[in-house]
Every structure is written in C-alpha cells, then in structure tokens.
Amino acid sequence: xxxxxxxxxxxxxxxxxxxxxxxxxxxxxxxxxxxxxxxxxxxxxxxxxxxxxxxxxxxxxxxxxxxxxxxxxxxxxxxxxxxxxxxxxxxxxxxxxxxxxxxxxxxxxxxxxxxxxxxxxxxxxxxxxxxxxxxxxxxxxxxxxxxxxxxxxxxxxxxxxxxxxxxxxxxxxxxxxxxxxxxxxxxxxxxxxxxxxxxxxxxxxxxxxxxxxxxxxxxxxxxxxxxxxxxxxxxxxxxxxxxxx
Length: 245
What we know:
The protein is an alpha/beta fold.
C-alpha cells in the first residue's frame, strides 16, 4: 500500500503472526499506519499496513531494508518484536543458534534504531519498545534465548539514557506465558506440561497477544514521555519471587 511520506509510521518487526500481529492490529485500530518487517508475509491485510519480507538474522539484508524504510517512511516509533526461541541447554546449545538469536534480538534492533534515528529525533516524541521476555530472569532449556533477551534489557536501558535528551523513550516488555499459535503447537491443551505452566501463573490463565499489545500501546503513547528505561513484565505473576532486572 502507499503511505504518505510525511505521515507518522510505526515499524513493527515480526508482525505477521502472534504477538506482533496483535500489536500491529491494535495500532491500526487507532488509525496509525504500520510497517511490518518479517521473514514471512502475513496472510491478513489492512489499508494502513505495509509488509516487507526480510530475514532479520541476515545483517546485509537487515541493513538494506532499514535504509529503504528510512528513505520511504516517516518512522516515529519502532517495536522490535521479532524473536525466536532456539531451545537448548548448555550441553546442547550451538554457536549457530547463538548467532541466530544475537542477530535477531540484538543486531537487528540496533540496525533499525540507527536507521530510524533521524525521524525519531525529528518527531520530538520518538518511541522505541523492545520485546524482551520473562525468560531474561532465567528459564530452563533456553540458554541462548534467555541470554539475548537479557541483553535486550541492557540495550533498552542504555538507549534510554542516550536518547532521552532527544525526547525519545525506550522501554521493554517481558511477556510470560502467552497463548500464541506457536505456544499451542508445542503445548496442547490438557497436556501435562501445559497444566504445569498454568499452575505457575498467579492469575490462573494464559496471557493473550492482546495483553501484550495493550502494554506496548502504553509505552508508545505520546502522553507517556516521562516513562523510559523500564521493563514491564506482562506475565500473569510468573515473575513473583524472582529478583527483577
């Protein structure tokens, strides 16, 4: 679709499915145009949605799409949502898995932020939200995933310090158990592991992608410019009793 060059746009990575789709749909419901960067194009559409296919683990491809988007759109908000779990313990994790998640969770957000800084600064109310995870506090069988999701929190806090003078806020969301298509495929309803997860949630239910999307909208709102460098765990209470970072 065609979005006017001067119209404020939010870039959401990984918006084809799951949490990213819920974030994009919530923004579109407010009349905000969204640019989706994902490894697969979505099977849904909207008049204010523009989607581009890109492998964000590929540095050259990410640099190119970031430059193209920066030239084409007035990006005043960025949601670094794209992610991948890459399960594995320290005995089974590989450097290839580590390279993939570092590229997706750390390098791609860095490149996108750098590309969009001119319009983020010019807007006078730039917004960046990074999608970390409750796993940043530690999660079994997720050694490389947890490490990079914790790294996103360090990135968030440092960017908040550096970009605060430009009126750009930078915050992070840490989702807990969220009932996405991917979660359901590996945790069928009624399965023992699914029941164990449900018992660990203080509020007694799984989270939804819309729960996360509402938290993202809070951080993106122009009137919330006094909140920066924070991590909001949307986790149903699964972080209770765990030292926060």
